[in-house]
Write a structure and sequence with these properties.
Layout lengths: L3 H15 L5 E6 L13 E6 L4 E3 L2 E12 L13 E12 L6 E3 L9 H39 L1
Length: 152
């Protein structure tokens, strides 16, 4: 599970990438200590401008970005970046039951659902104000035209 700081970081990262047209994402936890892996990154986020396919515990993405985060300072080396970004052309991500998954693909915790709802509500509110404004402009235009006709 993510700490509050990690959660906030990936939440903000997902919003930042969403605004760069990477609308599909999957972020997974990866415990380097228990996974017997040389991977020191404990959070990996994958972003794609194309839809990510979900098949059971596998996610398939094309032409995306992978951002890895060492949020717990597992690496003691000064030469390894705490955040690593790489471009990927094609990748299959397999998750296991010990990992937490945050994604807008499938039935996972969607970190941008409220943001997308807010965007949609903002657009609908702006449109809702547009119609009365057009009507007011029409009435004003008609009034001004009638004033000039009376003078002429």
């Amino acid at each position: 599970m993510l700490s509050q700081t990690e959660y906030q970081y990936i939440h903000d990262l997902v919003l930042q990438m969403y605004n760069q047209d990477y609308h599909y994402y999957i972020c997974i936890t990866n415990n380097p200590i228990t996974s017997n892996s040389s991977n020191i990154y404990d959070i990996e986020c994958y972003f794609s401008q194309n839809e990510i396919t979900n098949q059971s515990n596998r996610f398939i993405l094309q032409n995306g970005v992978k951002i890895s985060l060492d949020s717990n300072n597992y690496s003691t080396s000064n030469t390894i970046d705490k955040i690593k970004r790489e471009t990927i052309s094609s990748q299959t991500i397999t998750t296991n039951t010990k990992e937490y998954v945050y994604s807008n693909v499938g039935q996972y915790s969607n970190l941008i659902a409220s943001y997308e709802t807010s965007l949609n509500n903002h657009l609908s509110i702006d449109f809702a104000y547009l119609i009365p404004c057009i009507l007011i402009l029409q009435v004003l235009t008609t009034f001004i035209r009638s004033m000039f006709k009376k003078r002429g």
